[in-house]
Amino acid sequence: MDITVNILLTIATAATPLLIAAIGELVVERSGVLNLGVEGMMIMGAVGGFGAGYLTGSPWIGLLAAIAMGALFSLLFAVMTLSLATNQVATGLSLTLLGLGLSGMIGTSFVGQPGVRLPNLDIPGLTSIPVIGRLLFGQDPIFYISIALTAAVMWFLFKTRTGLTLRSIGDSHASAHALGIKVIRYRYLSVIFGGACAGLAGGHLSLVYTPQWVENMTAGRGWIALALVVFASWRPWRVLAGAYIFGAVWIGQLHAQAFGIPVPSQMLSSLPYLATVVVLVLISRNKRLTMMNTPASLGQPFVPDR
Amino acid sequence: MGANQDGTNLLEVRGLTKIFGALTACDHIDLDIARGEIHALLGENGAGKSTLVKMLFGSLEPNSGEIFWNGQAVRITSPGVAKKLGIGMVFQHFSLFEALTAAENIALSLDDGSPIGSIAAKARALSYSYGLPLDPESMVGDLSVGERQRIEIIRCLLQTPQLIILDEPTSVLTPQEADKLFETLERLRSEGKSILYISHRLEEVKRICDRATVLRHGKVVGHCNPREETAASLARMMVGNEVQAVVRAPAEGIETAQPLLEIRGLTRKPATPFSIPLRNISLNVRAGEVIGIAGVAGNGQGEFFESVSGEVLQQDAASVRIRGKDAGGLTITGRRLLGAAFVPEERLGHGAAPRMKLSENLLLSRHATDGKAFVGTGGMVKSGAIYAASQRIIAAMDVRKSAPDPEAAALSGGNLQKFIVGRELDRRPSVMVVNQPTWGVDAGAAARIRQTLIELSRSGSAVLVISQDLDELFEISDAIAVMHNGELSKPMPIAEATFEKVGLLMGGAEPGHAEHTLETA
């Protein structure tokens, strides 16, 4: 029983950063902006979070620093693509490259230093309930944030007027502009929200998952988050499902490798990617629904004529 | 809007000017709109009508000039300001969101925070009271253009505007839908609302408008009462000189002529959830005749053109036959080599590569059919011959341009269209298929393009014209077929065709039904 609980807990820990980064990017893409810099913003969040936590000794300050770092870094992308109307794909890619390089430079003195870890929740009486106690009441704070964030984004996008406006901008920025909606302002806020989420996801890596700083420690998770958004056809609950499928197969194949199953380890390592793609493709079979949810102006720069 | 302002106009515009780079789109425009009138804004494409109304609605900021609303000087800095004043707009290119429902679309333009449910109820009630029934739950992407326009109008009316601006509202409607719209406008006028009606369709302006302001090259060239003018005198004001009337010589002996373009049972599945399937289309175009295909936009004309031109190949090679040969499996180049020529609807990016010179665009479309003339040994391009040919086309079609061999994107829409049509005509094709030949082209150029299409057919070619402009089709066609929801009606000889018959078919009436109502009427 304990093993099962432990496995479930590690799955949640593996899925959480993917979920947070993907939910943030989902909001960005719903507003019609394609930010391929998730990996870069995430690693900046990781290094910022670790650094602030290490220097102050407080993981909570580290957490805030991670969020701020991601948001600040995304602001660079926002200024370039929204105010200067640069190509979103090229700018996003360079943001990732810049983030990977810059974080390595900032983190030179952090390598090998002991980090601080965000404490797991511990509610007397509840956390000690067998099995569900630790699953429901004993995880790290960012896990709860990730679930609350998903629910909040779902509610925001589909139940509020502001969310409707955001989706309308993603569908047609020209129409939105003609109605007097402040397209650029909405997109700025979306991009910064996405950056803050990516920063938080990075902070999860360096403050919870492995509380230390290692160069390139995001290891492609930003790209997986990006892919999740597309394969989940821009729907929050599918992003959640995708992140957890990925996490589950990831942990599963690690255990399989540990057991020494006679399958090449490269094959096993590729399983999470394959499984996530297959499952998400299967649930988004409905072409019509997918069309309805795809932001039609995704990636197109918007220059209002004045 | 108190009673003390009875003497003033609702809207007065003085010296409004908008400059884009070297172009003065609006040059010291003056305009008065009284309460309870339908005021027409007339002008050719590029005369500055759209720029002017964009400034009135706050989408563009003027460089200079003043706007008075109920006698008060106002600055309309955004559509939000315009809406607060009481100005509503129904856009020419719909400003709707396809992936949202009608109710959500309406909610987006209302600034109050009322829930979608109550907005949907209000929209439904208002739409029925005006006889423009609307289902607020329907997804805009699934609706016809006429239904989309209803959403725009209802959305505008829900804001209880004093002034409603309609930008070319009938260009996408069937004649019957347009009648319905005119009824609505007259009712709004009787309720004391003012309407600024933008159009280049003179007959309808004469029919419903009380006053007209005519623009040409960004300047006001006259005010008039359209009811006292003739369509010809209005056209003269718009264009600045007489427009050459198109002459259609009777087509001789086409009953016995060979069909050069045969379409047999052409069927195509929809490529995307929003596109139209083609259902068993059959049509013959014989040597010497012009066949017109009418239809409301988005009823499969685009899909049909792609299938006929070879942009999309058919499984059944015999479903498209050119000069007696199966062409369904051939690409565009293959079909061109059989003697066909095609002019697509979209000029930039489809009919021509925007950033390439006219001569290069000529080579792109004719490198195969005119290989000997344009490409020498070893695949070397003969620039001199291509340049000479492009100059010949420019002269023949009277293409106005700023440089000897400019980039396609540097030409105005009308001039580029003249070049594209001329490029294909220059080959003397035996089959010519044109989609929207004069969309957005000024009257003079349009008349020239129409005349050349007729002359091409009379010299023994088969010409197929797809158009949303019924006046144009009646002017040039020997027979008109109507496309509705991916089906094509039988071609109706022009002598038997009337606007009413064609309009009913465009609205989806059964062919037999259309005949019947006309006989009993």
TrEMBL record, chain A:
Its main location: membrane. This is ABC transporter permease. It comes from Mesorhizobium qingshengii. InterPro entries: ABC_transp_permease. The chain crosses the membrane at residues 6-28, 33-54, 60-82, 89-111, 141-158, 188-210, 216-234, 241-261, 267-283. Pfam families: BPD_transp_2 (PF02653). CDD domains: TM_PBP1_transp_TpRbsC_like (cd06580). Keywords: Cell membrane, Membrane, Transmembrane, Transmembrane helix. It is found in: Cell membrane. It comes from the Bacteria. It is a multi-pass membrane protein. PANTHER family: ABC TRANSPORTER PERMEASE PROTEIN, SUGAR ABC TRANSPORTER INTEGRAL MEMBRANE PROTEIN-RELATED.
